[in-house]
Amino acid sequence: MIVVDTNILAYLYLPTGFAARAEELLERDAEWTAPVLWRSEFRSILAGYMRRKTLTFEEARALQTEAENLLAGNEYEVDSERVLELVRDSDCSAYDCEFAALAMRLGVKLVTMDSKLLRAFPKYAVSLTAG
Fold first, then answer.
1. Of 59, 56, 55, 79, whose CA–CA distance to 67 is shortest?
2. Measured in whole angstroms, how far is the alpha carbon of residue 93 from the centre of its chain?
3. Three-class secondary structure of residue 6 per DSSP
């Protein structure tokens, strides 16, 4: 089990330079988890692709459904106090700290490409491109 931030999900489903890495990660560990926040962040990414006419509405809807199916049963609410503590002690956004808080709560790694998360939480955060 691993926590993945929303960009890792985007790399899995959208044409990016990290798509192959995200697919390899899924093959190595298929139990991906995330805070419920991922849904809104992923929809926002899909909205950008739709506005740039890179994805149709139907394609975006299908990708959202596929991602929701991947994370079904592995979405978590996070403790607000813990998130705020992590914000206080780092330079990461509250959004990013939700992912870190979940990784800490579950005692698993957070896979991300976010440099702030990688610096602030080296015990939990690992880069998609590491190893």
1. 59
2. 14
3. helix
